[in-house]
Amino acid sequence: MTAGVVRGSAIIADGAGRFVVDTIEVDPPAAGEVRVAIAAAGVCHTDHASLRWPGPLVMGHEGAGHVEAIGAGVEGLEIGLPVLLNWAIPCGHCWQCEHGAAALCERTHELDAARLGNSRAHVGATRWRGQAIERAFHLGTFASHTVVRAEAVTPLSPTLPLDAACILGCAVMTGVGSAVNVAQASPGDTVAVLGCGGVGLNVIQGARIAGASTIIAIDRVPARLERARVLGATHTLAPHEHDGDHAQLVAEVRALTGGRGVDHAFEATGVPALAFLPLKLARNGGNALQVSGAHGPATLELTELFWNKRYLAPLYGGCVPAHDFPRLFEWIADGRLELAALISHHYPMEALERAFDDMLTGRSSKGVLRIA
Ligand SMILES: [Zn+2]
Ligand SMILES: [Zn+2]
Q1: Of the bound ligands, which one is closest to the alpha carbon of residue 92?
Q2: Which ligand is nearest to the CA of 50?
């Protein structure tokens, strides 16, 4: 039986800071593509930023669901299979892919342009009010249905609840991968994490899995620090009022690390002004990482880079899907990686405004939309 066009619903950003939940039509998958019925989608700071991207745009880039239709030539998938969506889709053949940096694939955008150039895609895979529209990160997970390249889906164990697994494809991978793949935290290492939201909590989990002995969680919201403890933080610090230059915070982190600073300091707040604070928290010769993907200007005093400190801004935790997703699944199965304990709030699609508000004020640590 050939799949036809489906009608569903999606959250559409209008490009001017607003969004609506509305009806969409989604085409059947072309060759090399699959259509996924989305069950749940994580809410990330990047989704809030996407309100200002050119619109209209189907929002959302973390998600999980079931394979609903399969295009020609796609192997290894079947209808009804639970799958994770991955926004950084590697081609497997470009210079970056061949040098182990799949997250930096040089052809993802090119391939997508080629897809949009074919005759079917002129009509558009997703239509809203009769018009073909883009989907965030070629996924658009805040939607009942989406069509994606087959390489963007990874089969999930049927025992994993989709409303928890949906956050694997951004928050979990970014956080855990930054600690394990990029900083390469090792047993006995010391770690500090600024910001205990979706990414920060996963940096903490990654550091714990890597065997770090001191993991300092820093956040202004007590509930987030409690969650950080549950997930592996050995110490928690709340920034002080009137500590504008962070001198007090730096002194407290040093006091916990023999006066030296940590081996690996991470910024996961999404606040541009804090992007270089990890340089003050890291020891000489240590790693400072900005993993929140914060956009905007920040000021750097160059002496912060002295003493062999390395400053890194990794994308997506250095994700190589074929290597990293099976390892994350293994860690979930043996109980080392927590999923459900990361998620503080579930929302219906209609409550995205509240989900953003909870995220931006720090009331939630990680929010998930249940897609109806
Ligand atoms: Zn994200
Ligand atoms: Zn590539």
Answers
A1: 2
A2: 1
Cβ neighbours of 330 (radius 10 Å): 11
How far does residue 95's CA lie from ligand 2's centre (Å)? 7
The CATH homologous superfamily of the domain defined by 6-167+343-370: Medium-chain alcohol dehydrogenases, catalytic domain (3.90.180.10)
Ligand 1: centre distance to CA 156 (Å): 19
Half-sphere exposure of 35 (CA within 13 A, CB side): 23
Architecture of the structural domain at 172-315: 3-Layer(aba) Sandwich (3.40)
Ligand nearest to the CA of 320: 2
Tell me the pLDDT of the chain (372 aa) as tens digits.
468 999 999 999 998 999 999 999 999 999 989 999 999 999 999 999 999 998 899 999 999 999 999 999 999 999 999 999 999 888 888 999 999 998 888 887 665 555 544 434 444 589 999 989 989 988 999 999 999 989 899 999 999 999 999 999 999 999 999 999 999 999 999 999 999 999 999 999 999 999 999 999 999 999 999 999 999 999 999 999 898 899 999 999 999 999 999 999 999 999 999 999 999 999 999 999 999 988 889 999 999 988 999 999 999 999 999 999 999 999 999 999 999 999 999 999 999 999 999 999 989 989 999 997
Q: Tell me how far the alpha carbon of residue 117 lies from the centroid of ligand 1, in angstroms.
A: 27
In 220-259, which positions are buried (b, 16+ CB within 10 angstroms) versus exposed (e)?
ebeebbbbbeebbbbbbbeeeeeeeebeebbebbbebbee
Ligand approaching nearest to the C-alpha of 63: 1
All residues at 6 or more sequence positions from 85 whose CB lies less than 8 Å from its CB, including other chains: 36, 38, 61, 62, 63, 64, 65, 139, 141, 146, 148, 152, 153, 169
